[in-house]
Design goal:
- There is one protein chain.
- The chain is mainly alpha-helical.
- Helix content is 72%, strand content 0%.
- The protein contains eight helices and no strands.
- The two termini are 24 Å apart.
């Protein structure tokens, strides 16, 4: 199935020629991978929530998702397809992103006027970067740059951004029952 390996030039021709058939394939894939995406959606969110600041949470969430999509393209394409039919990156991530931006605005950490705008900036940039990488595997790794520019757009200082994107992310810990 085309969605299992990502969309290439041949698949793009198929999409243009047979949009109804492709939609059915995407819906079928969505049903097959929804449990994978829902489970994976909660794992980074739980780890990110343990971080002490909103800027750290935004940086980590974007980098975790971009790294995961680069390392597991099937998961990455599943996330892209799920995003087409619901909240970006699933309901847990969508809500957590909004709450993080809202808390950052209230604490003065972020300088954006509206939590919805900030959430859309974070999720939209991560979605665009993920899509670009999945379509072009030779694209440079830009996780830190995407995070840096988004954080700058949220009003975080350049000095703080440099410290955030230079740090190693902690591993995402899975419960033993989730390990293969």
């Amino acid at each position: 199935m085309a969605a299992d390996r990502g969309i290439d030039a041949d698949d793009q021709d198929l999409i243009a020629a047979e949009p109804a058939k492709q939609h059915l394939e995407i819906v079928a894939v969505e049903g097959a991978v929804a449990p994978l995406c829902q489970k994976a959606d909660g794992e980074p969110v739980a780890t990110v929530r343990t971080m002490p600041t909103n800027a750290e949470r935004c940086d980590a969430a974007m980098r975790y998702y971009l790294q995961r999509a680069r390392n597991d393209t099937v998961w990455g394409w599943a996330m892209i397809h799920i995003c087409a039919h619901g909240p970006l990156f699933g309901a847990n991530t969508f809500t957590a992103a909004h709450q993080t931006i809202e808390a950052g605005i209230e604490s003065g950490e972020f300088d954006v006027s509206d939590a919805q705008i900030g959430r859309d900036l974070v999720l939209g940039a991560a979605y665009a970067a993920m899509t670009n990488h999945l379509r072009n595997a030779d694209a440079p790794i830009v996780d830190g740059l995407v995070s840096a520019y988004v954080l700058r757009g949220l009003g975080v200082t350049k000095e703080r951004i440099a410290r955030l994107v230079a740090r190693d992310l902690p591993p995402i810990k899975l419960p033993p029952s989730e390990l293969l």
